[in-house]
Amino acid sequence: MHQTPRGESEWTGIRSGSFDGSKDIYNLFADMRRDAPVWQAPWGDVYVSRYDLVAACLSNRRLSHAPPTAADIAPNSALRNWLIYQEGGTHTAIKAALQKPFAAKGLSALRPYVEEAIDLHIGSAAHDGETEIVAAFARAIPERVIGRLLGVPVDDLPLLAGWSASIRELLDIGFDDAFDSRLNAVDEMSAYFTDHARKLLEGSELPVLLTGLPALVENVGLVVAGSNLALLAFAGHETTVHLLGNMFFHLANAPEQLAKLRADPALAAQVLAETLRLESPVQKICRWPTGTMELGGHVLEKGQLVVLLCGAANRDPLRFTEADRFILDRAPAQNLAFGRGLHVCIGRALAEIEAVSVLTAALRRWSTIEPVKGGARWLDNSSFRGLDRLILRLAS
Ligand code: HEM
Predict the structure, then answer these.
(1) How many domains are there within the chain?
(2) Ligand 1 midpoint to CA 200 (Å)
(3) Is residue 321 a contact partner of residue 330, using CB atoms and an 8 Å limit?
(4) What cofactor does this chain's UniProt record say it requires (predicted)?
């Protein structure tokens, strides 16, 4: 499939489980886009890095979302029930039920939950001086918002952080292991949410994000519904946590762009779009060919894992000028951070409301937002791009 491109030996760095967050992944992406935009790794998986190819793959129906069943994996994890890995009628039924509350009218019902969490973690909390913002608010706010929107009791909210950290790692170790329930936090989380769904259906009022729960249970049963509530809880905050951290990292490190934003707060939406493009929280999307097919002049085999590198596509200079720079007033061009096609993200509007509201509150609260030398540590995770730690100097 490929000649040996220059520097290829270093490309093993993108392999799940061996990623080093302190290394510059974007130089490696640039080499891949130039030398082998469809690259078969020595371990058999295929990586796609150019924007046009990734965009085309996202809506190619010959690339399945459902992983092939590996004969040596037993028993399968609840991960296999997740909407992301469904095809056809099951996908349509689950998606319709889950996205019901996100319809335009429902969005206003989400805002008070976002405002409450911001008030708690930014408004009322004392964070002046050098502050580690991931723990202070970038993780705490999305975690509380999704928990409350799903009706999770406040005392149980700390459970989400533990599950999230485990599942984030699990999704980055390779699919055979991830789908094996023997080492799987998804199963524990799904059992909790199956029980939660049962209790909710016995009660009189459904939480804001679960108005579609009765239809979901009727269509796919309680257990699959519970797995998908776990998906909502995980996908509904782990991604937004990194969006917030990445957004403050880039703003703090680009004082001229921060000044522009202060002069024109309406640029908040562009800050969000530019962060999603430049530092995409979801770096990898997986697909499996339904039969032998051609991609960018290469032959893909049925069932071979195809990894779409969103983070590489979103910095493709053929699509975005000065692609490695954080520029607020760039010409609009759609990035792929929320995916595309039938499986496009259902939570986009919530993530946008959260990010713009947090940014607005932060600008109001702090007149100084500055980086601290050595204060940023990126996650050692090739699937999620985000900060494990971000210390900033904040002053009112
Ligand atoms: C910055 C925030 C977010 C990012 C970058 C993001 C990214 C993505 C991407 C790339 C996909 C497509 C996966 C694929 O094609 O296989 C996706 C799907 C999904 N996202 Fe998000 N997401 C975010 C926030 C959210 C939130 C807040 C929720 C829920 C409240 C959510 C729920 C989902 C679900 C359920 C799917 C599966 C859709 C399907 O398979 O049809 N996401 N997301």
Answers:
(1) 1
(2) 24
(3) yes
(4) heme
Give first-to-last CA distance, the chain, whole Å: 56
Q: Residue 3: inside a domain, yes or no?
A: no
Q: Is residue 34 part of a domain?
A: yes
Residue nearest to atom 39 of ligand 1 (CA): 343
CATH classification at residue 199: 1.10.630.10
- Collapsed DSSP state (helix, strand, coil) of residue 217: helix
Find out whether 350 and 212 touch, Cβ atoms under 8 Å. Answer: no
Please write the tens of the pLDDT for every residue from 60-97: 999 999 988 765 555 678 888 999 999 999 999 999 99
Q: Is residue 2 part of a domain?
A: no
Atom number of ligand 1 nearest to Cα 242: 1
> Per residue in 226-255, is it b (16+ CB within 10 Å) or e — as a string?
bbbbbbbbbbbbbbbbbbbbbbbbbbbebe
Ligand 1, atom 3: nearest CA belongs to which residue?
A: 239
CA gap 81, 77 in Å, rounded: 8
Distance from residue 349's CA to the centre of ligand 1 (Å): 11
Burial 265-282, CB ≥16 within 10 A → b, else e? eebbebbbbbbbbbbbbb
Residue 320 falls inside a structural domain: yes
